[in-house]
Amino acid sequence: MRDHRKLRAFELADQLVMSVYSATRTFPKDEMFGLTSQLRRASVSIASNIVEGCARNSEADFLRFLDMAFGSVREVEYQLTIASRLEYTSGDAAEQLANQAEETARVLAGLIRSLRSTS
What we know:
Elements: H1 8-24, H2 35-54, H3 59-85, H4 91-118
Helix pairs in contact: 1-2, 1-4, 2-3, 3-4
């Protein structure tokens, strides 16, 4: 089994979760069960899938969970775009969140590529 805490992808995903929770505190109350909930769940899903994948015994299972994490990070990127277009996040905050999500996706994609090339 792998230690998820040693993966840069997990560190970035964890930081993204904290940033998403912080940013969504200021979203309109009528979004509590809409975009706020979706963004939070999708961001937590990224880190959670990395953790669960690390707990699996096979490389194939690990990759499957990393693929799910990658799908979730793309979902977060889109939802952040919606939040920005609806002006729920300011320009600087929206850019910072988008950059965090993009870096998380880039590192996660690199990890996936690396594992696929060695298996």
